[in-house]
């Protein structure tokens, strides 16, 4: 089934339909959203796009929003977009159609649209896709049944229904809006209002700050990149205006991201997300950001390196603890960091606070009450008699006083070896902490004034693990196809350090046909100004066979074996076009086959470039291979490595295609060329893809893909 998404924007509706197996064609003017058809809807030739089962229009609601107060409304401009969207729907005559509109907007009251929109909206939804129902306005016409009265709802949420798939009777209507008595403008949040821990925050926002949450949305239960970008832009303007007015105190914004680790938008490694912007440039716009996560490494590196502080609670996973210590290992040895963590977690509900903006002597705290003392952070307060070490440690106090500010509150520590002297009750010395069982203690002589703890062997230093080899075969996949599959290791592979990776024994059968990248041949008729096309039958071609097909479908053509060229007769009127010429001469059609467009013409790439020579159009070099190379990709291994380039960061091996259909390609990583994987490394489920240079999956036609991954840990 096919969906046409008009004025798609971020494409949220299209993603929901695409996840359910629909073919989605999006139309938008902004190229940054990567729509299928990038053009002004006023210039759209909808008839060239083919038939659609449903058309969804999301017109810009800025002009109809009740929150628009900064400038006069330009309702005529908004009306033109809506009327054009309705015209497209009327021309395409889909089985289902919807026009999105906020319930509190003024679109339904526009005089120019009276008779075209339902005031109490019921939108038909295809059977089996009832969860796609969203508040929408349906276009009136010969396809919309007569309105039926709405019954009063008991709850705040509208019910969802389904429609039968019988074409012999009109589809049943799905009620989307509740009764007019429903006046709340703040959508009911499924997370924040029901968690009692957030109640003080809600009371502070609504009572102390005086924010009307019915008019301004401040709670989001799903990651909304667009809303976050809007907040950033608004705060940027507020900060700039405040500085221009010379205000001494600037307005600030606090953004709290809690429990969003399951949102895939936060896992992108490109560094262009809104969360990256907040941590990199948010401080310049007076925006503070707090992020809570169950796993540190799920947070992107751009966020982690720009943190100003971190609070760490008790961790239950040894790998996660080691990851935290690895993040902090540039500040102190892991041994001392581990001792601080263990002391901070000794009491229930306690946490370890690290303030990155301070110097190391004042950076580490147990909660916000006790500061940890480091080597070199204490100075003698006064002359004192030398004290003898007891069991290899100096007695509590040790004749030294910690440098820095005084305590916040009195210490509640019950361990006499935990805190320093009574003059500094809230300063903790990690050198005096009790070591875990199995950590050797090295005694010191009576004349020594330092603990032997710093010379204790580090706990995490284990014997160098052996090299690891992973043999992968797509026939043993747990899901997917031979060119896009998931491979499960029999047991989890842990590596505490970084490792060098190479790919060996790559075996891929060349089952690629000459028509895999496209089957259409386009030419222009200059006299008529029309675009014409012919479809190349699927198969593997030679130069002579391709020239014979061109002769029978376009014009006389000859294959010159000596130069590997094809010469096509040219009559000064008809000429074969390349993809670039298609975009320039026919950006909006007409003439494209169903499913093709100027941006995706699905043309065959065997001929390559050409030039005119008298009565001939000469293609100087033709290639019968659909691909010159294919790329083996793995996001779990690629994202952990330092791989750069416009082709992506997940490439682990490049395979050259140069022997023709039917041959088996064998390749491997070049000698001495290893990919550095940053540790610690944890592998269990690996996702592999075999793609062309543009990242499109290739068709292996049922032939398997196998290779071996070699991992050599650092010494």
TrEMBL record:
Write out the ranges of the annotated region (Disordered): 139-172
Which Gene3D superfamilies did the record assign? Vaccinia Virus protein VP39 (3.40.50.150)
Superkingdom, taxonomy of origin: Eukaryota
Q: Where is the composition biased (Basic residues)?
A: 149-159
This protein's name: Uncharacterized protein
């Amino acid at each position: 089934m096919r969906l046409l998404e008009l004025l798609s924007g971020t494409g949220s509706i299209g993603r929901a339909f695409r996840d359910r197996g629909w073919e989605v064609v999006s139309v938008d003017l902004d190229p940054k959203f990567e729509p299928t058809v990038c053009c002004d809807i006023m210039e759209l030739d909808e008839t060239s796009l083919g038939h659609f089962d449903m058309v969804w229009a999301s017109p810009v609601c800025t002009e109809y929003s009740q929150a628009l107060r900064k400038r006069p409304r330009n309702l005529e401009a908004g009306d033109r977009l809506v009327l054009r969207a309705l015209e497209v729907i009327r021309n395409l005559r889909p089985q289902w159609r919807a026009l999105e509109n906020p319930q509190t907007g003024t679109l339904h009251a526009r005089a120019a649209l009276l008779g075209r929109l339902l005031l109490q909206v019921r939108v038909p939804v295809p059977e089996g896709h009832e969860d796609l129902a969203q508040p929408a306005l349906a276009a009136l016409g010969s396809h919309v049944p007569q309105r039926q009265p709405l019954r009063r709802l008991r709850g705040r949420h509208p019910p969802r229904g389904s429609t039968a798939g019988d074409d012999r009777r009109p589809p049943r209507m799905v009620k989307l809006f509740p009764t007019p008595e429903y006046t709340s403008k703040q959508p009911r949040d499924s997370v924040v209002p029901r968690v009692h821990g957030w109640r003080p925050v809600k009371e502070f926002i609504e009572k102390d700050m005086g924010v009307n949450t019915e008019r301004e949305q401040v709670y989001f239960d799903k990651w909304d990149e667009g809303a976050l970008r809007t907040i950033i832009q608004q705060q940027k303007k507020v900060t700039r205006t405040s500085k221009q007015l010379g205000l001494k105190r600037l307005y600030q914004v606090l953004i709290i991201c809690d429990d969003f680790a399951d949102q895939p938008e936060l896992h992108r490694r490109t560094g262009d997300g809104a969360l990256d912007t907040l941590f990199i440039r948010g401080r310049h716009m007076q925006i503070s950001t707090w992020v809570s996560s169950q796993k540190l490494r799920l947070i992107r590196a751009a966020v982690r390196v720009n943190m100003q502080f971190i609070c760490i609670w008790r961790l239950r996973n040894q790998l996660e603890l080691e990851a935290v210590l690895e993040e902090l290992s540039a500040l102190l040895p892991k041994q001392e960091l581990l001792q601080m963590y263990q002391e901070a977690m000794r009491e229930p509900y306690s946490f370890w606070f690290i303030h990155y903006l301070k110097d190391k002597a004042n950076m580490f705290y147990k909660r916000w009450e006790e500061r940890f003392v480091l080597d070199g952070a204490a100075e003698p307060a006064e002359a004192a008699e030398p004290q003898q070490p007891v069991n290899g440690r100096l007695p509590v106090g040790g004749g030294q006083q910690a440098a820095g500010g005084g305590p916040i509150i009195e210490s509640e520590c019950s361990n006499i070896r935990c805190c320093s002297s009574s003059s500094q009750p809230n300063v903790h010395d990690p050198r005096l902490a009790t070591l875990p069982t199995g950590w050797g203690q090295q005694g010191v002589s009576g004349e020594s004034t330092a603990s032997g703890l710093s010379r204790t062997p580090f706990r995490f230093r284990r014997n160098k693990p052996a090299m690891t080899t992973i043999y992968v075969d797509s026939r043993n996949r747990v899901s997917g196809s031979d060119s896009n599959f998931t491979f499960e290791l029999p047991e989890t592979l842990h590596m505490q350090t970084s490792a060098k990776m190479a790919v060996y024994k790559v075996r891929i059968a060349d089952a690629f046909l000459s028509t895999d990248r496209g089957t259409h041949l386009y030419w222009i008729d200059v006299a008529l100004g029309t675009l014409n096309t012919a479809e190349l039958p699927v198969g593997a071609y030679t130069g002579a066979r391709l020239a014979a097909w061109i002769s029978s479908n376009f014009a006389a053509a000859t294959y010159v074996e000596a130069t590997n060229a094809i010469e096509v007769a040219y009559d000064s009127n008809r000429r074969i076009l390349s993809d670039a010429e298609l975009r320039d001469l026919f950006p909006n059609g007409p003439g494209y086959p169903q499913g093709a467009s100027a941006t995706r013409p699905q043309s065959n790439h065997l001929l390559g470039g050409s030039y005119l020579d008298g009565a001939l159009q000469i293609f100087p070099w033709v290639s019968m291979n659909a691909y010159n190379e294919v790329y083996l990709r793995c996001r779990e291994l690629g994202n952990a490595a330092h791989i750069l380039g416009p082709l992506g960061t997940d490439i682990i091996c490049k395979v050259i295609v140069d022997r023709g259909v039917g041959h088996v390609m064998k390749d491997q990583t070049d000698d001495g060329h290893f990919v550095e994987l940053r540790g610690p490394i944890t592998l269990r489920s690996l996702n592999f893809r075999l793609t062309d240079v543009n990242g499109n999956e290739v068709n292996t036609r049922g032939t398997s893909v196998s290779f071996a991954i070699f991992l050599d840990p650092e010494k």
